[in-house]
Amino acid sequence: MTDHRLKFMKPSIALQLHRDAIRTVVERNDACNPRIFGSVVHGSDADGSDLDILVDPIANKTSLISLVRIKRELEQILGVTTDIQTPLSIHEKFRSAVLREAVPV
After folding, report:
1. How confident is the prediction for the chain on average, in pLDDT?
2. What 3-state DSSP class applies to 42?
3. In what order do the strands lie in the sheet with 103-104?
4. Would you say 55 and 31 are in contact if contact means Cβ atoms under 8 Å apart?
5. The CATH number of 4-104 is which of 3.30.1850.10, 3.30.460.10, 3.40.50.300, 3.30.450.40?
């Protein structure tokens, strides 16, 4: 459940406030190397934008349930909608651009 008081916070602000928590949640849920991409990296995020996070799966550990848990936990902590992707979940047309622009958390 998202904290509605933070619902309209800019994702870039939520990121600044919770970098350590993001890394912890990702690692605790069997993924690694969290990176930010999209509007936050471009400096175009606004109140109500989502936070795009790219994570690397860990062989034989990361599952769809892991990714859902990461999304839910981060949305609760950050108070912003969060989109969790892995490199292979991004359409191949956009994958190389996303991987080039992604910035470590």
Report:
1. 92
2. helix
3. 82-85, 51-57, 31-37, 103-104
4. yes
5. 3.30.460.10
